[in-house]
Specification:
The complex is a heterodimer of chains A (347) and B (272).
Chain A: E1 2-6, H1 10-21, E2 25-30, H2 40-43, E3 47-48, H3 50-53, H4 59-79, E4 83-84, E5 88-92, H5 97-107, H6 111-114, E6 116-119, H7 120-126, E7 136-140, E8 144-146, H8 148-156, E9 161-164, E10 177-180, E11 192-202, E12 212-215, E13 220-226, E14 230-234, H9 248-261, E15 269-280, E16 287-291, E17 294-298, H10 304-323
Parallel strand pairs in A: 1-2, 1-10, 2-9, 5-12, 10-17
Antiparallel strand pairs in A: 3-8, 4-8, 5-7, 6-7, 11-14, 11-15, 12-13, 13-14, 16-17
Chain B: H1 2-7, E1 14-16, E2 19-21, E3 25-28, H2 35-45, E4 49-53, H3 65-72, E5 77-81, H4 88-102, E6 106-109, E7 112-114, E8 119-120, H5 122-134, E9 138-143, H6 147-155, E10 160-163, H7 177-186, E11 193-195, H8 201-209, E12 214-217, H9 219-222, H10 227-247, H11 267-270
Parallel strand pairs in B: 3-4, 3-12, 4-5, 6-9, 9-10, 11-12
Antiparallel strand pairs in B: 1-2, 7-8
Helix pairs in contact in B: 2-10, 4-5, 8-10
Classes of the chains: A alpha/beta (347), B alpha/beta (272).
Chain lengths: 347, 272
């Protein structure tokens, strides 16, 4: 079977890998050059944080995230990609402590399983580098992170042939199966780009082993670890599809957050400032749908790494269904899918 | 009879910048969980005016086009704001861009003086208001509750003066009801809108009971667990507070007195 995939971001590579494993002849078409990737997946911090995201996300995201947390480790082990699955830490400065209470309240009954309150001693025990810096926090035991760039590189050699620097539309592609995962570049109705900016640091003086989130009244700020005391500090969230470089204001917000977490970040090297666009539908939920004969997977928003394995399973089910002719070819809905329409059955 | 009774349960419409509105609740469009939730909250609120921020969206490149289109489709009057500006010059430049992008001379003028609580800078605010009213903008000025500042903004020709109830995003409710009552009493003809700091519908009702023309809020709805339900709550509270103001409250009595003589108790005993 010949498979053509428009877009070699996270999802294009993941599904290319799975289909290539099944013996398909896979070609991916990527608009950006090999040495200047523009995908959101390349910029991402790749936190796997269903509980942290829950207060701001539809319940479907939480359930897809939980399912994906179980699906990631065997995939990452097979690909040799670094990751951590021993939870994340959420801290707040004294004046922002009410945000912790609001966060717990938003979790509802899930908080019993998903969040463990920490006092200063608990924070120090979990992340010694943060000792004496915060009075209150939470341990979210069922969260993790993965090394997004190691994953993208590992997939690049296994997902079929990637043709870089060639913008395509699904209508241009001729194959037995055409998959459209162009993200914000797809220009679909109702799809918008939400700008996110992150900074990558090398901080030999700071040792954090969990992703750490800092509560703030207006921003979502976190530091995600990478091997070798490197860190990804993210992320701004701006309702804009402007693709320019990171702004001074965003850099100040992100770096101030890192410095507020640990003064050792003051002497960190700034390795990179990057901006990406996350593609989102109006309900901020992903969609897997047939559109003019192509399987269109888009709208993963800020949850790409969090929900990718669950969305992948859904996409493969859609493809298998069509292959077997088990049901009539589903067509793209003419109006937006109802809220939660892409939720897995157990949600 | 019944028809009259039905009419009297609606608060009076109000005017600002020469236009008439039925809803006295203005809503911000930031920080909702998704555009879909925002749209549901806007519908539930009954609002007719939405504020929109554009400072960080790279407006020069029309970076926020998708979300602006989404907001425009909600059928409300758009009130672009200058949130994120720190000087009069920045605010004036952004105002000119917003006039082109949204094809409106309405402007919610915000000039931040303190970045943690987003407190307005009164000095830059006055300067920006002076320039923008001169350029023909209909300026809705976000200010602290300082009487002199608010008076000056009115004198400059701002179509609405919008003192805070408390710092933006705190949800504290009215930290200084006395200052707000003073503003209403001293600027009886100005359009006064309390903007920012409200957390609960009861805060909004309190504002309206003081005789303010309207309430503007964002975080209280956007960051509620269920934004559309909270929007519905604010809608009813704003109407309730306004109706109370229009109805004229009873006089408050300083001592606890029975309102009718207590049966069986001679008046000389009650006076003891």
């Amino acid at each position: 079977m010949r498979v053509a995939i428009a877009g070699a971001g996270l999802f294009g590579r993941l599904i290319g890998w799975r289909l290539a494993e099944r013996g398909a002849d896979v070609t991916l078409w990527e608009q950006s050059p090999r040495d200047a990737p523009t995908s959101a997946a390349h910029a991402a911090a790749a936190m796997l944080a269903p509980a942290s995201e829950a207060p701001d996300a539809d319940a479907a995201i939480f359930h897809m995230g939980k399912r994906s947390l179980a699906l990631w480790p065997p995939m990452l082990d097979a690909l040799g990609v670094p990751y951590g699955m021993d939870g994340s830490v959420l801290v707040a400065h004294g004046q922002d402590a009410p945000l912790l209470d609001k966060f717990l309240r938003s979790l509802g009954p899930r908080r019993v399983e998903e969040a463990r309150p920490l006092d200063a001693h608990g924070i120090a025990a979990l992340e010694p580098a943060l000792a004496g810096r915060f009075e209150r926090g939470l341990h979210l035991p069922n969260e993790g992170w993965l090394d997004n760039r190691a994953l993208l590189s590992a997939l690049a050699t296994r997902c079929g042939e990637i043709r870089y620097g060639v913008p395509v539309t699904p209508a241009n592609l001729h194959a037995n199966l055409v998959i459209d995962c162009r993200g914000a570049g797809a220009g679909l109705p109702d799809l918008r780009g939400v700008r996110g900016e992150v900074i990558r640091l090398a901080a030999p003086e700071v040792q954090l082993s969990h992703p750490v989130r800092l509560m703030h009244p207006r921003y979502q700020l976190y530091v995600a670890p990478r091997p070798g005391r490197r860190y990804v500090v993210g992320a701004t969230q701006i309702e804009s599809d402007a693709t320019g470089a990171v702004t001074v204001r965003s850099a100040l917000e992100l770096l101030s957050a890192a410095f507020a977490l640990h003064p050792g970040f003051a002497e960190a090297e700034v390795l990179e400032l990057s901006a990406g666009l996350r593609a989102a539908y109006p309900d901020n939920l992903p969609r897997v749908e047939w559109r003019d004969g192509a399987l269109c997977v888009n709208g993963l928003y800020r949850h790409g790494f969090l929900v990718a394995p669950a969305v992948l399973a859904e996409a493969l089910t859609a493809i298998d269904g069509r292959e077997q002719g088990a049901r009539p070819l589903p067509r793209a809905a003419s109006k937006p899918a109802p809220r939660g329409a892409t939720a897995p059955a157990e949600a | 009879m019944e028809r009259d009774a039905a009419l009297n349960t609606e608060p009076a419409p109000w005017q600002v910048a020469g236009e008439t509105f039925r809803s006295r609740l203005l809503l911000g469009t930031a920080r909702y969980p998704s555009p879909a939730v925002m749209a549901a909250a806007v519908a539930a609120s009954g609002t007719e005016v939405l504020t929109v921020a554009l400072r960080r969206q790279a407006p020069g490149q029309l970076g926020g086009g998708a979300i602006w289109d989404h907001i425009a489709q909600l059928g409300c009057r758009i009130l672009p704001n200058t949130a994120g500006c720190h000087t009069a010059q920045e605010a004036v430049t952004l105002a000119q861009m917003s006039r082109e992008i949204f094809a409106t001379d309405w402007l919610k003028l915000e000039v931040t003086g303190d970045d943690y609580n987003l407190q307005p800078d009164p000095f830059e605010l006055l300067e920006a208001a002076r320039q923008l009213t001169g350029m023909g903008f209909k300026v809705f000025a976000y200010a602290t509750d300082d009487l002199v500042l608010c008076s000056r903004l009115r004198d400059l020709g701002c179509v609405a003066v919008m003192p805070w109830g408390a710092p933006i995003g705190t949800g504290k409710g009215l930290t200084d009801p006395y200052a707000l009552a003073t503003l209403r009493a001293r600027l009886p003809d100005a359009v006064l809108v309390v903007d920012a700091g409200l957390g609960l519908p009861s805060h909004a009702a309190q504002v309206m009971e003081l005789g303010f023309d309207a309430v503007l809020l964002n975080t209280a709805v956007a960051r509620a667990d269920d934004p559309p339900r909270m929007a519905a709550g604010f809608r009813q509270a704003v109407a309730a507070g306004r109706l109370a103001f229009e109805a004229g409250p009873m006089a408050i009595s300083e001592t606890a007195q029975p309102s009718t003589p207590v049966v069986g108790q001679p008046f000389w005993q009650a006076e003891r």
